[in-house]
Amino acid sequence: MSKCVITIARGFGSGGRTIGKLLAQRLDIDYYNDDLIKLASEESGINLELFGKADEHVKTNLFKRYKKSYGEWTIPPDSDLFVSDDNLFNYQAKIIRDLADKSDCVIIGRCADYILRERKDLTRIFVYADKEACMKRVTSLYGMLPAEAEKKIETLDKARANYYKYYTGNDWNDVNNFDLCLNTSAISFEKAVDIICDYLAQTGKLPQNS
């Protein structure tokens, strides 16, 4: 049976999370987002709150570099670094690898595109939109004032970019990191799912049950 693993990186307010969920429903495959950190907490025994604080955020330090593991190894509990942000990422990366091995799935954010980059069944998607479209969605969804929404978008996108740079060494908004980039400024989420499904069909990566 062919495998279909889809990762979605997304700008805040672009609709990437919703598109990922709709896509998983359309393809009848598993969907993983916030539950990744819960699974990582259960795997490691580390408090879920620590994973939540480190989720897609990184404490930047010019003199520190990530010791590349991507889930291939984790720091043991007797180490002072067991609950470090890097080890939290290691456990999350391990969960991402395990889930991708287990079944067809859609995985949202958390450098999954890079962690799984060697898989032949992988499709890496980046979802973005212009500032006006993102602000409109954020103000509607969260009841924020325009100024609040603009600041939230800038803060979260900067955090995601820093997180991606630290753990992958690549620029988050570089199109070369992805197979398909979608601008959702002027299209519906359902149309975005149509486009992704067409791309999967063209590349022979649709799951067999679709």
Structural summary, described in words:
The protein is of the alpha/beta class and 210 residues long. The protein has one domain (5-201): Rossmann fold (3-Layer(aba) Sandwich). It contains eight helices and five strands. The protein has a five-stranded parallel sheet with strand order 2-3-1-4-5, sandwiched between helices.
Compose a concise summary of this entry:
By secondary structure, the protein is α/β, with parallel strands linked by helices. It is 48% helix and 11% strand.
What's the CATH architecture name?
A: 3-Layer(aba) Sandwich
Q: Which stretches are poorly predicted, pLDDT < 50 over at least 5 residues?
A: none
Spatial separation of the terminal alpha carbons: 12 Å
CATH C-level class = Alpha Beta
Domain tally:
1
The number of E-state strands comes to 5
Structural class, from helix and strand content?
alpha/beta
Element string (H = helix, E = strand): EHEHHHEHEHHEH
Strand percent estimate? 5-15%
Mean pLDDT comes to 92
Query: What is the global morphology?
Result: globular
Order of strands, main sheet, comes to 2-3-1-4-5
CATH superfamily: P-loop containing nucleotide triphosphate hydrolases
The level of helicity is 40-55%
Q: What is the oligomeric state here? A: single chain
Report the CATH topology name.
Answer: Rossmann fold
* Rounded Rg: 17 Å
Number of helices: 8
Largest sheet: number of strands, sense, barrel closure = 5 strands, parallel
